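Hi everyone, sorry if this is the wrong subforum. Our group has a chain we'd like a structural model of before ordering constructs, and none of us has done structure prediction before. Sequence below.
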Amino acid sequence: MWELDEKKYLYLLFFIPLLVLIFLYNLYWKRKKQREFGDIVLVRKLSPEKSTFKSILKLCITLLALTSLIIALVNPKIGLKAETAKREGIDIVFAVDVSKSMLCEDVAPSRLEKSKQIVSQLINQLAGDRIGIVAYAGSAYPVLPITTDYGVAKMFLQSMNPGMVSSQGTSLDDAIRVSASYFEHEDKKVSKLLILISDGEDHTDGAKDAVEEAQKAGLKIITIGVGTPKGGPIPLRENGIVESFQRDNNGDVVITKLNQASLEAIAKTTKGYINGNNTKEVVEFVKKALDNVEKTEFQAQQYTDFNSQFQWFLGIALVLLCIDIFLLEKKTKWVKKLNLFNEKE
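Answer:
Right subforum, don't worry. Here is the predicted structure as tokens:
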């Protein structure tokens, strides 16, 4: 297997035939001027040791050297290179509330988009930690298993929406249990952290039991409340335009509010609750919390990558340029005997 790292430099190869044309034109021009000067045979006798073959040979060497330099710039990668990567950190699961109440815009641009911004900024602060993502509403849904690929995590994060969970409402206990299940088969020595982001509206009564189960399993919990105590309506959009607002069975517009008390109760043991309306404050809060968590060295992970080959082409180019420098255009005795270009009288 092979790939080209910098394909844009391949365009430089178009200069090679251009240099050949310039050389041929120069050769033609010299011959023309020699004929104007006098008889071509007599003119050649003025420089009997000059070799046409050597001129062509020097051109070929120069062109090969330039080609090798261009290929070195392109940096072809051939084969596979195995490396061992060791990471030190903790396991973190982000549980993001995607219920319809998170569409409320009492926090700009909306509670859900604000939650995504917070998680994205937190991921940017991580280094060797492994992360997973859970989405939840009336039930919890595992979005991304434990991984060290932050790019993939952000991609999945941006795709999260209320439509990915069939049952609506907010089940904090299910979110905690599904998040805790991420760690069941992981190394028990690795520190585990759940960062739960929600407006705190809970339509179940099992959150307290779920928290106790999680704590027995060594899972620490931080909760982030997104929304305002005053709250706001839930917009229903069609093609990006607000058509109406969510209404209850009586036809009244539903007003959803931040339930800070339920989130504080979940994170009571760790004192890990913070209001998420200020992203910078949340990031600083979580960073301080992570500094107090013991880091663990994960098992070595094998991964493969293409091995760069530019150095070979760079070496070939340097050797060819050195040959060109020491190669004179004077005739060589054994080449002269071959009379390749009918240079004998």
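For your construct planning: The longest strand covers residues 76-85. The two ends are 55 Å apart (CA to CA).
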